[in-house]
Amino acid sequence: MLDFIENLTSVWDVLKNTDKKIVLYGMGDGADKVLREFSALGIKPYGVMASDDFVRGQKFHNFTVKKLSDFESELDDFIIALCFASQLPDVIEHIKSVAEKHRLLVPSVPVFGENIFNGEFLHKNKKPLKKAYSLLADELSKKVFEDIISFQYSGELKYLDSCTSDKDEAFKILNLKDDESYLDLGAYNGDTIEEFLNYTHGKYKNITAFEPSAKSFKKLTDYCLNLENVSLWQLASYNKNTTLNFNTKSGRNCAIDENGVPVQAARADTILCGKKITYAKLDVEGAEKETLQGMENTIKLFKPKLNVAAYHRSEDIFSLILQLYELNPDYKFYLRHHPYIPHWDTNLYCV
Question: Rounded to two decimals, what is the model's pTM?
Fold first, then answer.
């Protein structure tokens, strides 16, 4: 086991062994995944709650969704299992205010993939975890790594609080210039191009962007209408040129889904065809590994600065570091977590 979590207890063990009632906070995909793991572990929740504005007497998995005040009147004491995500400051503050009154834990389920972050997962991946940790370039990166691992294992919010920093600090690491050739993989509606332009004061050499969702691609096209030297592709980035099925109804979370609609996918190397890239952002909803495989030539040839989402899969926080180290052992690896509950928006910055 890793030294910094030796004295911690898995959130799943806490919830399995508690005598207190467990109330799920939230509805949707995250709660579905938590309930599946509860079923596998024999954990029986008492009920489901939502924020007051969302409670309308609706049902979720045969539970009538209630307000926090309803459970406070029914029970003397209970544990709240948080099952949704948010980066909105007012929502984050509300979650923290609830946690001040009741014990609140966050069972960690991956956005994509089946690997649950528990003791078995940590034991199985002890060596790659230690190797990735050893490659981190500064003390803050190591603290982020320790705290994100501790958060996912224990479900305790305090570990997120202690390692959160803003984007300005991360972009100081990237140190973007006014002549960058930018590759945006998972460009959504243009918001990360806008972010890029903010940090380069609107100056750049060229921009290439991929976005698979037709709806988001239209918004992306509209946003870029008056920008020069921009190449937009309605494509998913992947490790081969193929057709994939995508769930395109979830906006930013457009992702591979066997029940989705067909979308063209391509290796970034194929589209770039030797074009020099100096900075690339990858936020591709769980396909970061395959996307990096699809741009190996670009990484090896040009060693671009990278901004990579490292939270979609349980293994991303260490496996992506090791994958990139194989492609370019000269990279310096920085890990940062930006305001979000749970540990989403934990990103790997490579320079």
Answer: 0.93
